[in-house]
């Protein structure tokens, strides 16, 4: 079990363009068309499976919202930050 991060730790470790929303960290990615978003969601799902840490993925027209929290711990842990960083690195690839 990972430890819950403090408010200061969350603020310090949150990757650029991610925001905190209560017990979740959130980012919305924009795409030129719907299917690029769908493909991105698939890639996020593959990362989630590899890390066994699963975000909420909301697919909308030309945008995908990713919401991360650690359910078992009941808040934000370094697993969420690590997932956000992995997603960022894949998105920038
Ligand atoms: C039983 C429990 O659901 C599993 O251990 C994993 C699966 N994926 C998970 N994903 C997230 N975001 N939080 C969890 O606590 C979590 N737990």
Automatic annotation (TrEMBL):
Keywords of the record: Lyase
GO MF annotation list: 4-alpha-hydroxytetrahydrobiopterin dehydratase activity
A family per Pfam: Pterin_4a
InterPro entries reported for this sequence: PCD_sf, Pterin_deHydtase
CDD domains: PCD_DCoH (cd00488)
GO biological process: tetrahydrobiopterin biosynthetic process
Protein origin, superkingdom: Archaea
EC number: 4.2.1.96
Catalytic activity: (4aS,6R)-4a-hydroxy-L-erythro-5,6,7,8-tetrahydrobiopterin = (6R)-L-erythro-6,7-dihydrobiopterin + H2O
Family: Belongs to the pterin-4-alpha-carbinolamine dehydratase family.
Name this polypeptide is given: 4a-hydroxytetrahydrobiopterin dehydratase
């Amino acid at each position: 079990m990972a430890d819950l991060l403090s408010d200061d730790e969350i603020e310090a470790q949150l990757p650029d363009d991610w925001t905190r929303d209560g017990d979740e960290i959130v980012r919305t990615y924009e795409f030129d068309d719907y299917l690029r978003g769908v493909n991105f969601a698939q890639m996020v799902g593959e990362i989630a499976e590899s890390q066994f840490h699963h975000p909420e993925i909301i697919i909308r027209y030309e945008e995908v919202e990713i919401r991360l929290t650690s359910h078992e711990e009941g808040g934000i842990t370094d697993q969420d930050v690590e997932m956000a960083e992995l997603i960022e690195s894949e998105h920038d690839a």
